[in-house]
Amino acid sequence: MKIDVLTLFPEMFEGVFGASILGKARDKGIVALEAVNFREYANNKHNTVDDYPYGGGGGMVLKPDPVFAAVEALQVDEAVRPRVILMCPQGASFTQRKAEELAKEQHLVFICGHYEGYDERIREHLVTDELSIGDYVLTGGEIPAMAVIDSIVRLLPGVLGNETSAVTDSYSTGLLEHPHYTRPAEFRGWTVPDVLISGHHANIEVWRREQSLLRTLKRRPDLLEQAELSGKERKWIAEQAKRFEGPAEG
Questions:
Q1: Annotated catalytic residue, options 169, 177, 210, 233
Q2: What's the predicted TM-score (pTM) here?
Q3: Is 122 a residue whose pLDDT tops 90?
């Protein structure tokens, strides 16, 4: 996979692209990561990439010409258009499902904006996806792009040491992940559940599934509406929900 990020601050990505999972994936040749300063594609002597908005108002707006020029320069194969992703508060909420979808692409281009916003022609004629990582506003799209890229790259084959890790992550199954334990078996009087050290793998899988359902019910019950559950599991969840409600007041 090839991932390019259009930004006015490419130095922000140096540490992120060179460390941890992303750094290892790049070293293995699994993904090519590059931050591109799209100011270099400005077509004026002052290399300005923003201007005042038509109709008046506060703030500055990113011009379309340097952004279009940068994306077009990055498109190696004219027959294969990259997915061009605009990070903005108006975008669709980024989810694990979206990460899995984007992980199947060959070339992704992220656009990180600043100032008041983007010229609307960028949205209408260049961008394929608009994404947001939450209902809040940051100073630019760099930090959201880093989060999305990390989420995508870790799904690529060969990136994680254990290929099953990504499959069982929270949200990958539509549910929150079950609790994890490691050595020591007892710590400050707190013990690991007996089933996990029983060696009975079938019982362990049942326990993990139930804990995943229970944790989702407690923390994100909205996820259960769309989750793929058996009739038996939905009945079990309903019973657990009643236990949380407690006895009715009389």
A1: 169
A2: 0.85
A3: yes
